[in-house]
Design goal:
single chain; 720 residues; alpha+beta; Arc Repressor Mutant, subunit A; Beta-lactamase; 7-stranded mixed beta sheet; 6-stranded antiparallel beta sheet; 20 strands
């Protein structure tokens, strides 16, 4: 019985093994069958899948950020416009040409950008057999012996181009040239990067036709392009800057810089001033698209990584309402001044209004009269940029810095008295104030603009010893002392404004004793209108040199609206340096400046004594030599007078500072106008009148326009 059981167990074990072997065999059979299907049926597909690459990510540009003024008015915007683009997804030359021929039937594109070389290249494409006949067999053989393959092909092609005649080029029809213009636009782009084919004057019909036929136009697309628009016309255009167009792309000299920052070669970038200075902010976050290609460069799949976002917005410090009013004032007074005698060389004027406590540039205005070479007519052009790029002798406006330098060096003290009478240095003309003032202290010297007081201060700074009609021994290090002190106010150095290409002015190279005296009254070195604004702001705020700023805030963009988005970054005021002062120093200069406008003996009293906002300031008149656009007409530069004015208000709690420069105001030493103080008075009036109007409008919850209309109605009622 026991023996039978053992036999049964022995029979069961082989059966189980056989079953296991069968299962294993069945599984292997399925695996082999699956491998066969993969290799035979799907092998090519998987091979292509393995060979494909995912190494090309394209950044598609987005509209730039907007610019607003300090009150939220749009200054620079983007105007949408229809556009037709082409993206080369690995098409061959013949394929691109075929698409260009189809597209030419749907749109009109002027061949005005087609060059002779383009025509020759196209002629060769159209006539390959005739092109080949341009080079003989003997020439082919000779070139093959002399050159490597690459150089040989290039030389053959060059010979073909050279031997195409004008008659042969004339064979190209208008239709051919249009196709060529489209093909040229296709070829000028880069692989997988959208290239603008047409974005000017794209009609609705063209846009619709192309959109309906995209399936027959591989690589072509319809989209919305944009261009910069300016709500206030040419106002501030020179400062706002320019943007390259789609044909220009990135400037060659900056190509490496931008390519390293994920730009495409045909991207539009800021190429001057605010547009360039804030390019990193304005250009936006590009849409990223990953193009998956095979080894042949054909796109297999396109994947959108990120949608992108237009550039961030800038809030400028400029008040456009005030800017427009000040520009109008400059234009009116510049034209009025031109009616005075000897003003043939007068062609420009500048005004800068600045918050002395924050550095905000509220107004940055410049106007220039330019003669049109074709018509001969004179037109007024924006020259706001001249406030930072051009410099002039500005005269007595710098005397506040001279007095403070005298205090700092110990040359004078508050209350120091000098006798104002003409000075005569050996072998030089007599130097004097515009009249003899007798005994004069520092405050009166500013009030009446005494040159002699400044001369004697400069002599003391240079440890000089003055004797009538004798040589003036002086330590020439005084030039450096005065210039270094002036620089602490912003004179003769970059102000630090957030704009490129700021001028520093001209420093006279010679260090003769007499020139030191001219330096002390602003008639040797030159300064920009912006430097004058920073200088007078430093005095107005009590000794802090504030960095001027044109951009106040960076804001997040809000799509499809002109409203301001949330603040991303606020540009805070920056104090560049603090003037070293003792008690009474700045107070005396403040009082001197106040008396210039509010004391009967003050040089600006006639224009400012009745101003309700209690101004302070300093006038300037500088003898200079003309160096403007008409310089070539003269054997020797004519002697001219530059007029200037700096000021602030209210004098006891300044909220606005101003600089006015009217270069080459008239020829000779006596003129027939005082445009500097007239412009200064009218500009400050405009500031405080606008402030008053806004406060009243806010009080009555009305707009400025409504308030102005109400004021006009009130005036009319009173007249009746």
């Amino acid at each position: 019985m026991v023996q039978n059981k053992k036999k049964k167990k022995k029979k069961i074990i082989p059966v189980r093994l056989n079953l296991l072997f069968f299962v294993v065999f069945f599984l292997f059979s399925i695996l082999i069958l699956r491998l066969g299907v993969v290799q035979i049926v799907y092998g090519d597909d998987y091979k292509r899948e393995i060979e494909r690459t995912e190494d090309i990510t394209v950044n598609n540009p987005v509209p730039r950020g907007k610019m607003y003024d300090r009150n939220g008015h749009v200054i620079v915007d983007n105007t949408p416009k229809n556009a037709i683009t082409y993206t080369n997804f690995g098409a061959s030359q013949s394929e691109m040409l075929e698409v260009a021929e189809r597209l030419a039937q749907l749109i009109e594109l002027k061949p005005d950008k087609v060059q002779e070389r383009d025509k020759k290249d196209y002629w060769i494409i159209k006539n390959p057999d005739r092109a080949a006949e341009k080079v003989s067999e003997e020439e082919h053989e000779a070139l093959k012996e002399e050159l490597e393959t690459k150089e040989y092909n290039s030389k053959v092609y060059s010979l073909q181009l050279e031997r195409i005649t004008d008659e042969e080029l004339e064979e190209l029809t208008e239709d051919d040239l249009e196709i060529l213009a489209i093909y040229r636009a296709f070829s000028s782009g880069y692989a997988l990067t959208p290239q603008i084919v047409k974005n000017e004057d794209v009609t609705q019909k063209e846009f619709a036709l192309v959109s309906e036929n995209l399936q027959y136009l591989p690589g072509v697309d319809t989209t919305t392009d944009w261009e910069r628009s300016y709500a206030f016309g040419n106002t501030l255009r020179t400062v706002l800057g320019k943007v390259t167009d789609s044909n220009e792309g990135i400037p060659k000299e900056e190509l490496d810089y931008y390519l390293a920052r994920d730009y495409n070669r045909n991207d539009r970038v800021g190429k001057s001033y605010i547009e360039k200075q804030y390019e990193d902010v304005l250009h936006g976050q590009k849409a990223k698209v990953k193009n998956i290609t095979d080894k042949a460069g054909k796109v297999i799949e396109t994947e959108v990584i990120s949608e992108g976002q237009r550039g961030k917005d800038l809030v400028l410090t400029i008040d456009m309402d005030l800017q427009l009013e000040v520009e109008k004032i400059i234009e009116e007074e510049l034209r009025a001044a031109k009616k005075s005698p000897r003003t043939g060389l007068l062609d420009r004027a500048f005004v800068v209004l600045m918050d002395p406590n924050t550095g905000d540039i509220i107004t940055m205005a410049g106007k220039q009269l330019v003669r049109d070479k074709e018509t001969g007519k004179t037109e007024m052009q924006d020259f706001a940029l001249g406030t930072i790029t051009t410099s002039y002798n500005v005269g007595s406006t710098v005397k506040g810095a001279t007095i403070l330098t005298g205090y700092q060096t110990g040359a004078i003290r508050p209350g120091t008295v000098f006798y104002d009478a003409p000075l005569k240095i050996a072998q030089t003309p007599e130097m004097s104030s515009w009249k003899n003032f007798g005994n004069t202290n520092d405050i009166r010297a500013l009030r009446v603009s005494s040159n002699v007081y400044m001369f004697k201060t400069a002599i003391e700074i240079g440890d000089g010893r003055y004797q009538y009609e004798k040589p003036l021994p002086i330590n020439t290090e005084a030039f450096d002392t005065i210039r270094e002190s002036f620089a602490q106010f912003g004179l003769g150095t970059r102000t630090g404004i957030d704009l490129p290409n700021e001028a520093t002015g001209y420093k006279g190279p010679l260090k003769d004793p007499g020139l030191l005296l001219f330096l002390s009254i602003g008639q040797y070195d030159t300064y920009t209108p912006m430097q004058l604004a920073q200088y007078v702001s430093t005095i107005a705020n009590g000794g802090n040199r504030i960095q001027p700023r044109i951009v106040k805030e960076i804001r997040a963009p809000l799509m499809e609206t002109n409203e301001l988005g949330p603040v991303i970054e606020e540009i805070k005021p920056t104090v560049l340096n603090r003037i070293k002062l003792e008690n009474g120093w700045m107070e005396n200069v403040h009082e001197g400046f106040r008396q210039v406008t509010q004391h009967p003996e003050g040089t600006a009293y006639g224009k400012f004594h009745d101003a309700y906002y209690s101004p302070a300031g300093k006038t300037g008149t500088a003898q200079a030599f003309y160096d403007g656009p008409e310089r070539s007409k003269y054997a020797e530069p004519p002697e001219v007078m530059n007029l200037s004015f700096v000021g602030y208000a209210p004098h006891n709690n300044p909220e606005v500072a101003i600089s006015v420069v009217v270069p080459w105001a008239y020829q000779g030493r006596s003129g027939g106008h005082s445009a500097n103080t007239i412009i200064g008075r009218r500009a400050l009036d405009a500031y405080f009148d606008l402030k008053k109007t806004r406060e009243e409008a806010k009080l009555h919850n009305t707009s400025i326009v409504e308030q102005e209309n109400a004021d006009d109605d009130q005036e009319q009622t009173e007249e009746e």
